[in-house]
Amino acid sequence: MSSSLYENWTVATIERDLQPEVSTTLPDFDPPIRTRISTPFRCVACIGKTCVIFFLLGLIVGIFALPISMIVVGWKHVDECPAEELPIILMVGGLIFLIQIIVIPCFKKDGGKYITGFVALVELGWLLAAAVLLYRTDFVTDDLQNPNYCRPVVYYFTWWMVSIIIGCSGVTIMMVLCVTYREKCKRFCE
């Protein structure tokens, strides 16, 4: 038993063991030599591209799904919230956001900034009206005879939509302010 554990080992050299497999082919119709390095990273690139495609499709579906869901929930429960007119607010908000998504890109050239500004002002008015109607409704009950009755689905859906829009608007305003003042601060500090 004088054989060593390492007797079958050889030192790896770059020329022999560490180079990737390269296959060259000369197609009949294409004179240049084509080389292909076989690596396991090609699959990773395909997965990355697939993830990006699904993310973009999900984003597009989400952009259209929220306004459409606002319209559907408002339409379905239009008479089920006598305390406030939350279903009507939902339908109006869904229509405004659909107009923003579909119509605004058509007016990029001629007067687009005026139409975009007008739609933004209408959205701001809708947001303020929805917030006032929503947040002044303190009490949601399941009792149909109560004058403060509002279907919980309508109330909570409206609450989440308004809260998310307010939150996204706040984050957007903060980002715009940070970018704007960052540039001014750079010029001031230099």
Give a written overview of the molecule.
The protein is mostly helical and about 190 residues long. Helix content is about 60%, strand content about 5%. The chain has 4 helices and 2 strands; from the N terminus they run ββαααα. Strands 1-2 form a two-stranded antiparallel ribbon. Helix 1 packs across helix 2 (about 85-100). It is globular. Residues about 35-40 have low confidence and may be disordered. Keywords: Membrane, Transmembrane, Transmembrane helix.
Strand content: under 5%
Spatial order of the strands forming the largest sheet = 1-2
Instruction: Give the total of beta strands.
Output: 2
- Into how many domains do the coordinates divide? 1
Molecular shape: globular
What is the helix fraction of residues, given as a range? 55-70%
What gyration radius follows from the Cα positions, in whole Å? 30 Å
How many helices? The count is: 4
Question: What's the pLDDT, averaged over the residues?
Answer: 75
Low-confidence stretches: 34-41
Give the CA-CA distance, first to last residue: 76 Å
Which structural category do the helix and sheet elements fall into? mainly alpha
Biggest sheet overview: 2 strands, antiparallel
Elements, N to C (H/E): EEHHHH
Summary keywords:
mainly alpha; 190 residues; 4 helices; membrane; 4% strand
What is shown here, in short?
This protein has 190 residues and is mostly helical. It contains 4 helices and 2 strands. Strand 1 and strand 2 (34-37) form a beta hairpin.
